[in-house]
Amino acid sequence: MRYGRYPGRDLLLSGIMGCMLVVYSPFAHAQPVSLPVAEPAKKRVEPAKVAPLVLGRVRYEVVPWGTERGLAQDSGVIRAVDVRSGVELWLLTLFVITPDPDLEADKQEDFIVRLRPGKVGQILATTERGRRYRVDVERRTVEKLPAIR
């Protein structure tokens, strides 16, 4: 292959220029940099805060992340708190989630999105998936109601 009129000189110059590019390149002495790896996005959005329900001297609240309190599941739990003292009176699990190993754990949760008063001594709870429950707060019993479609 010919490099023009003076093949030896052109070849020599191209070799020198190539070396100069390597030697004087601003990247010639650059150290490898490890770029930060983005954390995977959360697969589940935080459940919305549910307004507590106050009946008499007791405030009923949803417990959003039950496993952080040592419970068996994250959702489906309410608690009763004395309004005056702030002391937790009791916890009640409205429904049990049976884990399916083929599904991601966070997709199996069904958080309570609404608490409202029912008949005297009762609370009605609704979940994200439209499941409804009636809670007798005196007996601490739970009755599953027809779901909302």
What this model shows, in words?
With 149 residues, this protein is α+β, with helices and mostly antiparallel strands. It has 2 domains: 1-28; 53-145, Beta Barrel (Thrombin, subunit H), CATH 2.40.10. Helix content is 14%, strand content 29%. It has 2 helices and 8 strands, in the order αββββαββββ. The protein has helices spanning 7-23, 105-108; strands at residues 53-55, 58-63, 77-82, 88-93, 112-117, 122-127, 132-136, 141-145. The strands form 2 sheets. Strands 1-2-3-4 form a 4-stranded antiparallel beta sheet, with no helix packed on it. The protein is elongated. It starts with 6 loop residues before the first helix and ends with a strand. Mean pLDDT is 80; it is low at 19-23.
What's the arrangement of strands in the largest beta sheet?
1-2-3-4
Radius of gyration: 33 Å
CATH architecture call of the largest domain: Beta Barrel
Number of strands: 8
Q: Roughly how much helix do the residues carry, as a percent range?
A: 10-25%
